[in-house]
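Review the following:
>
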Amino acid sequence: MTKMIQCISPVDGRVYAERPALSLSEAEMMVARARAAQGAWAARPLAERVALVRAGVAKLNEMKAQVVEELAWQMGRPTRFGGEFGGVNDRTDYMAQIAETALAPMVIEESDRFTRQIAREPVGVVFIVAPWNYPYLTTINTLVPALIAGNTVVLKAASQTMLVGERLAQAFHAAGIPEDVFQNVTLTHDVTEALIGARAFNFVNFTGSVAGGQAIERAAAGTFTGLGLELGGKDPGY
């Protein structure tokens, strides 16, 4: 039986949105498509990838009114505070501007005999597990550099802000980024952990609770999958 994932609005307590979760076999096929698409995406010129990502964020900006209203219903942020577009745009611009320098080979030695350098290569398939509180900004923090660097991306938005992933996918696909290069998915915790445990992803970026981070770390144990965990309460500066 298909499990439905619901977003219960804090505004009035109703089910604001619900989506069917992928089964493990469906999720595995999704990851396979992402992996198959990664080589061709990475082979595109850097300038082309940067332009497409910028265009995706521009398309998202065109949806600002819809995004702001949806965020209010999903997670309770009053519409007068707007969305997260200031940070989204600023960080996209910054990461696009530094991409050529950041991704260039690091030359250690260049002489008449040989050249030694450290080359930058995509990691492969990047999995983003985004939180509900700043769902666009935290996703952009990983989505933009991952795509620019030549990776494919799978996004699992928090159930409380499940429409965020759909809007990002809608915008980026409208800008010309192939559907298999950036996929938004709805997953249960057990399917998520099974995929991580099966080394479906080359890097996992999670923002959320300490308990959630522990679950991801347990699922990844022994796989040597790269993890980036930003966990609530771990830094007194926050």
The chain has a mean pLDDT of 95.
